[in-house]
Amino acid sequence: MKENTGLVTMGGNPVTLLGNIVEEGDKAPAFLLQKTDMSDAKLSDYSGKVIIISVVPSLDTPVCDLQTKRFNSEASELGDNVVILTVSMDLPFAQSRWCGASDISSVVTLSDHRTAEFGTSYGVLMKGARLLARSIFLIDKEGKIAYKELIKEIRDEPDYGSVLSKVRDLL
Q: Is residue 90 a contact partner of residue 113, using CB atoms and an 8 Å limit?
């Protein structure tokens, strides 16, 4: 499996990412993830929509909490042609518990815990930690990566303004 170093850090320490890193213009790799009820979710389930994929290491950490809540609050402004997916390695049960406690209703949380297929397909699986690196992927209605942000320091938040501006450009 391909290893990528020097792209992200955690607490200033370099992290190795596993898989093929996708780039803007690439066809978005298909994925099979689990919803909070343990049912399957595929990329094709959201075809025809603009898709924001907000990738977080764990919902139970402060920055991931902030990131998911921010996208949840932005969702109502984006309309029905946009879906926001938050992907982590958290177990679906933990995601469900967190969403209930945080009143998350406009973001779909999905788990990559079973196979880490999403992490390796998008190149964001952290070697050793088996967590996903904080990142944002925007997929247009044709299924191509229209925007990508791989956050350099895992503890930092993404550039919300840039991704939301790009979403509005696509609508």
A: yes
Instruction: Tell me the catalytic residues.
Output: 64
Whole-angstrom distance, CA of residue 83 vs CA of residue 148: 16
Structure tokens at 160: 């919300």
Secondary structure element (H or E) that encloses residue 16, with its range: strand 13-18
Q: How many residues does the chain have?
A: 171
Read off the pTM: 0.96
Confirm if 84 and 52 have CB atoms less than 8 A apart: yes
Domain span at residue 15?
A: 3-170
What distance in Å separates the CA atoms of residue 46 and residue 115, rounded to the nearest whole number? 21
Residues 6+ apart with CB under 8 A from 81: 49, 50, 141, 171
Residue type, 170: L
Number of domains present in the structure of the chain:
1
**Tokens 């909490």 sit on residue:** 65
Element (H, E) at 85: strand 82-88
Tokens of 18: 């596993």
Q: 13-65, pLDDT tens digit by residue?
A: 999 999 999 999 999 999 999 999 999 999 999 999 999 999 999 999 999 99
DSSP category for residue 90:
S
